[in-house]
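agent: user wants the full assembly modeled, not chains individually. Plan: 1) parse entity lines 2) check alphabet per entity 3) run joint structure prediction 4) return tokens. Steps 1-2 passed, two entities, 689 residues total. Proceeding.
--- entities ---
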Amino acid sequence: MIRALNLGMLALTIMICFGLYRVTHAAQEREGDLKRVEAQITEQQRAIDVLKAEWTHLSQPGKVQAMATRYLNLQPMKATQIAYLNEIPMRPEGAATMDDIAAIPFSKQGGEPVYDESAPVPQAKPARLGR
Amino acid sequence: MTDDARARRKAEQSDPVRGRVIFCAAAFAMIFGVLALRMAQIALFSPDSGGGVAFVETGPVGRPDIVDRNGVLLATDLQVASVYADPRDVWDPEETASALVSVFPELDEEAVLAKLKAKTGFVWIKRDITPRQHAAVHDLGLPGIGFRQELKRVYPNGRAAAHVVGFVDVDNKGLAGIERAIDTTLADKVAHGEPVRLSIDLRVQHVVEDELAQTIQTFSAIGGTGVVIDVKTGEVIAMVSAPDFDPNHVNADPAENRFNRATLGVYEMGSTFKSFNTAMALDAGISSKDYFDARAPIRIGRFSIRDYHPMGRALTVEEIFEHSSNVGSAHMAQKMGIEKQRAFLASLGQLEPVVMELPERGAPLSPKNWGEVELMTISFGHGIAVSPMHVVAGVTAMANGGMYIPPTILKRDAGADLHAHRVLKPETSTEMNRLFRLVVERGTARKADVPGYPVGGKTGTAEKSKAGGYARKALLSSFIGVFPADAPQYAILVIIDEPKGTKETAGYATGGWTAAPATSRIVARIAPMLGVEPRLGPNNEPGIADREGEAIQMAQDH
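--- prediction returned ---
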């Protein structure tokens, strides 16, 4: 009986040793992974820092203003261009509802929408920006 | 059988060897049990030696980022490589030196050679190299030459707010502005990894810089200052000192450009100081309808106080302010007395350096012998020199209901302690705001107004003191404004240093012709950014505009 117990213990010891070895090995591998990932994070973090600095540098108000005056037909907003919500008139009685609008056919033939030629067209946007 | 068993048990109990074996086995079992438990505990619960899982090593410890109130980056650390040499490991100094100079043509070969022959173990060859130079030097494969990763301070917004942000030396030590404060007075307030958040709004800062630069150019001035402050919190929204410098290349601009005119420079401010004189009188119970003599110039000793546009009659306090009468102001001050004036200016912080985070704070120049002459000249802003920030902080108290708030360059959280103290009665502040508006509506500052964002304020035109007298042609033209005039949220100060009159201004270079229109353009641009509600009602109050004229105007524009 003692002999069987000893044999059993020996087998268990070998198994534990092997198991322990595998766990240690796996842990080391994970640790290596972790270090790699951390190094990657650091590197990415640095890249993000550089990009942030570059973005800030490129989007400086002075640069945006120079671009805007060169390429856009925009002007500083005047106070008189700001309106209150209650200045917008209420919908008059008998005005078209959303259903009425939805019922308007886009084209008599279907397909191409019909444009009102007399309507003002937005000013042309620049073909390209920057150099 | 039972006898046999009983006999064996008896033998066991009596066998001393067997007892010891069992004792030892039990002891070992216990010890191993403890070890096993401890191992399990370490394996399962203990954190690893690298600290928490989220902990990431970010290289050398750097400086905190500096951001504006909206989080826009003003200063940050970027990693760059630097080349160093260990002269003991260098094989052939001559060859090494010529190879290095081939990569860095700006280096002096003799100097490099001297460094390589030095009897030390470490010399810098070149700090802050580009990735391309890094690769080139690396490819040379020179023994004794190495690289070190260093953090370099970068200011992505360049000149914007340069005087506020400051700059660092090559070893990343703060030399000026908030950068210096971070290393000194703010050192224990800066949380690790957290950016330093300024009260500056970069958009507003840019507008002030832009308009100030244009005004300086238009009037061929030598410099200027612009400050915008939130009168409710004392937060400085913009602070400009022109000419400025690029903190990325500090030595590229003349050293005097680094001088912060807004906080370090002290000037005799001229008529803008009449705001304080008037507020003092009103707070002492004088009504703005009370009359003071302004008929003739005052002669006292070798001085004579006169008005630019003499009215030749007695003026009310209101008229004195509106027409900027020196004589009237002097008489008002005389009624108040020297002690009262000194105490009032002290409570407004005008006699000590401004309390704020920037290290560059100029000490006011106030008279040592504060006599009758000083009493009168100080009433209209001569004989005392303060920094523009002093004036802004003082006017903040005029506009916000009478509380002096020490200005700050750092963002204040809502509900933060402002360290404010009362200097005026709330009624005096209301009256001052009315007078400020009068000056713009019909006084010297009509060009400061903005449709929809009514401005109130006071112009100032001081002759700069030059060696033993005042220079007639060297002016310091200023405008201190508050907006919106009916319930001020912001105060703004614009100073133009030595403007020269132009054809368009008929030769005038006074505050009303230079600083006031600049203020108008600044307010028109920044008021919408700052979320100021437009005053479109018939009496310049928030309300619905009469848009008929506007619609016609817009139709004509197109």
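agent: reporting back. The first strand of chain B starts at residue 66 and ends at 67. DSSP finds 17 helices and 16 strands in chain B.
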